[in-house]
């Protein structure tokens, strides 16, 4: 005799599919000591760069061998990163990650970087999808700072450009995910394309920085600027993974 049991939906919960925006860490080595040093060099002065962002660790570039996942997770969490999953790598690495409490997500796909040609197409595409006539477009989202920044002060324009109308003094730091415009002397640190935008630029009316960086490629004041740029209006961009500096009005 077959008995059909009536199903009843739970009153206290539901389970549904969900999409989660993730930050990806593409590991290229299992040398955690070196990784820790490079994380400190890149983010040690930017304690609020991440905001408890969920993180997927890409193991595809890790050479064969063991990886101490508990140590890796402990290294990442102080930077306000929340490791939740891994992708790629060997079966042994995936098993070790699961043992450490991470999910194995071989189907996870990383967002590809846009080519320059694709970026140029975006404004046209946006125009085609513009709202109906009479509906105003959203305002520009650049963060504008109109006061001088003193030593020890830091400003971060998350997800947008940064415009500074006063001096960035030595010891101060300006950071943006997009471009940085300083309409005054730039004497502190300027970090543009902080989340990897290689198209970002740094522009200033007086170039005298302690450090400039675009998409992780940086140059410090230990490498003196050429006389034709030092203290002059200049722009900085990234080309072939190198910082290129040029006068604003050549």
Automatic annotation (TrEMBL):
InterPro entries: CAP/MinC_C, MinC, MinC_C_sf, MinC_N, Septum_form_inhib_MinC_C. The keyword Cell division applies. Pfam families: MinC_C, MinC_N. Keywords: Cell cycle, Cell division, Septation. The keyword Cell cycle applies. It comes from the Bacteria. Residues 13-83 form the Septum formation inhibitor MinC N-terminal domain. Cell division inhibitor that blocks the formation of polar Z ring septums. Rapidly oscillates between the poles of the cell to destabilize FtsZ filaments that have formed before they mature into polar Z rings. Prevents FtsZ polymerization. Belongs to the MinC family. NCBIfam families: minC. This is Probable septum site-determining protein MinC. It comes from Ramlibacter pallidus. The lineage of its organism: Bacteria, Pseudomonadati, Pseudomonadota, Betaproteobacteria, Burkholderiales.
